[in-house]
User: Which sequence fits this backbone?
């Protein structure tokens, strides 16, 4: 069964500062989607809305996991993590002495995650080999790398 994420017409703010307005995004099963943008454009805020860290003022966030639909709005971060959804911080020094495999094992605390552990580690290993290892040296190379690794459909 496929898994998907639907974000529809999300508005979010920090106090009076509006950060997200009418943001919609759909990620279908098997897709990889990357959010790109300069600092301050709301990428982290959108992910915090998905994780229940920031409560949207309007809109819907729905995931389908193993054929069941879950509305994430109003759920606690802990409840969202229990569904198998996690936010991986971009900082690379959280657990600097652990191997890549050991870092991945930290996220496999759910029973369902542990049952598919071997195939997930193989999949992660294959994905890391395909990912560009260094920063692109030119805009053309960057565009080629982005087209291989992701498909952005935010609107």
Assistant:
């Amino acid at each position: 069964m496929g898994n998907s994420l639907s974000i529809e017409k999300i508005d979010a703010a920090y106090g009076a500062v509006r950060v997200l307005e009418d943001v919609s995004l759909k990620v279908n099963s098997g897709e990889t989607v990357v959010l790109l943008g300069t600092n301050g454009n709301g990428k982290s805020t959108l992910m915090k809305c998905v994780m229940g860290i920031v409560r949207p003022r309007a809109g819907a966030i729905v995931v389908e996991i193993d054929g069941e639909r879950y509305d994430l709005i109003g759920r606690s971060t802990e409840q969202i993590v229990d569904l198998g959804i996690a936010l991986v911080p971009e900082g690379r020094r959280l657990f600097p002495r652990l191997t890549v495999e050991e870092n991945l094992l930290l996220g496999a605390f759910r029973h369902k995650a542990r049952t598919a552990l071997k195939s997930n580690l193989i999949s992660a290993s294959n994905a890391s080999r395909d990912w560009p290892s260094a920063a692109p040296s030119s805009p053309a190379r960057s565009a080629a790398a982005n087209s291989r690794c992701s498909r952005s459909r935010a609107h």
Residues 134-155 have pLDDT under 50 and may be disordered. The chain is about 35% helix and 20% strand.
